[in-house]
Amino acid sequence: MTDNWLIVGLGNPGAEYAHNRHNVGQMVLDELASRVGGGFKSHRSRAQVLEGRMGVGGPRMVLAKPLSYMNVSGGQVSALAKFYDIDPGHVIAVHDEIDIPFNTVKLKIGGGEGGHNGLRDISRALATKDYLRVRVGVGRPPGRMDTADYVLRNFSAPEKKDLPFLIDSAADAVEALVREGLLAAQTTFHPVKAP
C-alpha cells in the first residue's frame, strides 16, 4: 500500500473568508504546514500545495488548499489525487461540521455529506464517498439564523479564545489518522461516555 497521503483543507479563497467558520479546514492545514516546516506553493491543479513528511522518514503528505470556492473544490481534489497517484482511501478532507459542537473533532470514512456541498462535490469528483474526513465542530447556528450565513461568519470572541486548541486538536487527528489508522485514531478522539 502506498504511504502517500493527500490532506485537503476545505474553505473559500480570499482574505474576506480567511477567518470564517467555513475555513477552519484551511486553518488546520496551516497548522500542519507549520509542523512540516514549509510553505504552500501554487500547483497547476489550482490549489496551494505543500509536500512534506510526517517526521523523519515518515509518511509522505501532500497538504492542499484548493483555490476554488468550497462548493466546487472536488475537481482540484480529484486532479491532485491523480497527479500524486493517491487512492481515495488515502485522501483526508478536513472541514467544518455544524452537526457536532464547537471544540469537538470527529473522524470517519465515507457516509453521507450532511448537506455539506464541499464534501458532495469531492464525492462526485472522486466517484466515491470512501475517503477520510476530519470533522471540525463549529456548532449549530443560533436561533433561526441561516446555516450559510452562520458558517460564513467569523468565530465569536469566546470561540476565538479556544480556536487555537481546536485547530491543534484537529491537526493531531490528521496525524493520528496517517500514523495509526482510523480505528485507533477514533479511540483517541471519540472518548467513550460514562454509562
Task: Provide the descriptors you would attach to this structure in a database record.
alpha/beta; single chain; Rossmann fold; 7-stranded mixed β-sheet; 195 residues; 7 strands
How would you sum up this structure, described in words?
The longest helix has 24 residues, at 157-180. Helix 1 (24-36) packs across helix 5 (157-180), helix 2 (74-83) packs parallel to helix 3 (117-126) and helix 5 (157-180) runs antiparallel to helix 6 (182-189). The protein has a single domain (4-189), classed as 3-Layer(aba) Sandwich (Rossmann fold). The protein is globular, with a radius of gyration of 16 Å. A 7-stranded mixed sheet has the order 2-3-4-1-5-7-6, with helices on both faces. It has 6 helices and 7 strands. The mean pLDDT is 91. The protein starts with a strand and ends in a 6-residue tail after the last helix. The chain has 195 residues and is an alpha/beta fold. A hairpin with a 3-residue loop joins strand 2 (41-43) and strand 3 (47-53).
The level 1 CATH classification is Alpha Beta
> Rg to the nearest angstrom?
16 Å
Total number of domains: 1
Proportion of helical residues = 25-40%
The helix-and-strand class reads: alpha/beta
Looking at the structure, what is the overall shape? globular
Total E-strand runs? 7
Short summary:
The protein is 36% helix and 21% strand. It has helices spanning 24-36, 74-83, 117-126, 147-151, 157-180, 182-189, and strands at residues 4-9, 41-43, 47-53, 60-66, 91-97, 105-109, 132-137. It has a 7-stranded mixed beta sheet, with helices on both faces.
